[in-house]
Design goal:
By secondary structure, the chain is mainly α. It has one domain: Up-down Bundle (Growth Hormone, Chain: A), CATH 1.20.1250.20. It is 74% helix and 0% strand. The protein is globular, with a radius of gyration of 21 Å. The two termini are 28 Å apart. The relative contact order is 0.16.
Length: 438
């Protein structure tokens, strides 16, 4: 078996932890913490304002280290950060302590277990089937929501949130050594090539390892009219034209593609963060009993898992931008449903449509970035994109909490989110990847 699929499995597990345990359980704990720490929803959800800024600050460094072959250390260190973070949260006596733990520990954990770390690991191992591999690995995030949201509600009821969070921390700490044992950052480290396909003979022995890790142009590969061009060039070659090389921060910031992708991705991540954080509270406000409300997150996560596979395959066959447009349109339909049909009977169907659309955002944004800038530059560009999209990701969740505290409803907030989603759809068609992938 091609060892790249083991890396897909590793990324599946790490994203289960990042999304399912770190983020989905936060939404379940939202009301618990407003009572425990005597804070409004803005006060608690404001954690999601400071956490993305901390993640953005370290993302460029994580991206460079990931591209330099340090994933075997970065990702297990992220698991250690998450485990220690949950143990610390379980002992918190004031809300400000959560405002310290989440930026210092959880932000790094999220950036390595998901985000830059997990995506770079998969991109390093796959070229032709990249979007599909990213989609499969990122089902872990959706599966985490399917399992952890209803499970956390039940565990909170039986054991209390403090004991449950302590248990989460201890389990994650136990997983970290296993990740370190399994991870191989690049196929060249095992004498392999992306997708497990034989490549042309390697160059002189002085060629840097990073060059071997990038996809090679196979003389047997025929271009497909529906897919991206199969001809690829190595960074630094005479044909590696318009795309900034790793480390070219100023050049990258002058590239409109990076800004557009950051905006499109940021709006999608903002929406998913808002829904994961506030959906259970919004449903219980409408009279839905807590267990059923938590199952809405499970429905959304299940649909998102399906969406990752569907949109990954669609991107590999019809192109990333076409698949991304379909994904965004599903989010538009779902948000319209939330605003027009806010009844409890419609919640399951609307949540499923929203999850399907959200499911495409993570693999498609990574695939679009890799298609535009190339695998060798992917880690640094992923880090820069994370930094640029942070204002959107950071403000969405506390904005929804503030609107609720002021008006007793989320309606105004979701109207704003709908407008931003429509703008991201328009921005998608302004992205211009190079004719030949770097």
């Amino acid at each position: 078996m091609f060892y790249g699929w083991v890396m897909v499995g590793v990324a599946f597990v790490t994203q289960f932890v990042s999304a399912g345990v770190i983020f989905y359980t936060f939404g379940v704990a939202l009301k618990e913490w407003t009572v425990e720490f005597e804070a409004g929803r803005l006060g608690v959800s404001g954690i999601h304002f400071v956490m993305p800024w901390a993640g953005a600050a370290i993302a460029p460094l994580v991206g460079r280290l990931a591209s330099s072959g340090h994933l075997r250390l970065l990702i297990p260190a992220g698991a250690l950060a998450a485990g220690l973070g949950f143990c610390a949260i379980s002992q918190a006596t004031s809300l400000w302590q959560l405002y310290v733990v989440y930026p210092l520990l959880m932000a790094y954990a999220a950036g390595t277990l998901s985000g830059v770390g997990a995506s770079t690991l998969v991109v390093n191992w796959f070229s032709k089937s990249r979007a599909t591999a990213l989609g499969i690995s990122q089902i872990g995030a959706s599966f985490g929501g399917m399992v952890m949201a209803p499970l956390t509600v039940s565990l909170f009821g039986e054991h209390g949130w403090r004991n449950v969070y302590l248990g989460f921390g201890l389990v994650i700490l136990a997983v970290a050594p296993l990740l370190a044992w399994l991870i191989v950052g690049r196929p060249a480290d095992r004498g392999l090539h992306p997708d497990g396909v034989a490549s042309p003979a390697a160059g002189p022995s002085s060629t840097p390892p990073a060059a071997h890790a990038a996809p090679h142009a196979s003389p047997h590969a025929a271009p497909s009219p529906a897919a991206q061009p199969s001809a690829q060039v190595l960074p630094g070659s005479p044909n590696a034209s318009a795309t900034p090389a790793p480390g070219g921060a100023r050049s990258a910031l002058r590239n409109s593609n990076l800004w557009l992708i950051a905006f499109i991705t940021g709006v999608g991540f903002m929406l998913s963060s808002v829904v994961v954080t506030h959906l259970v509270a919004m449903a219980t406000d409408a009279g839905v009993e807590p267990l059923r409300a938590s199952r809405l997150l499970a429905i959304m996560a299940t649909a998102a898992a399906f969406g990752k596979i569907v949109f990954g395959r669609l991107a590999d066959r019809a192109g990333v931008q076409t698949a991304y447009a379909v994904s965004i349109m599903l989010e538009v339909v779902a948000l319209g449903g939330i605003l027009l049909l806010p009844t409890s009977l419609a919640l399951e169907g609307i949540t499923a449509i929203l999850g399907l659309g959200i499911g495409g955002n993570l693999p498609l944004s990574a695939a679009l970035l890799a298609r535009t800038f190339g695998p060798a530059a992917f880690g640094p560009m992923m880090g820069m994109k994370t930094m640029l999209m942070t204002p959107l990701v950071a403000t969405g969740t506390p904005f929804a909490g503030w609107i609720f505290d002021e008006t007793g409803s989320y309606r105004i907030a979701f109207s704003v989110f709908l407008a931003l989603i429509l703008l991201s759809l328009a921005a998608l068609w302004r992205v211009r990847p190079p004719a030949v992938q770097p």
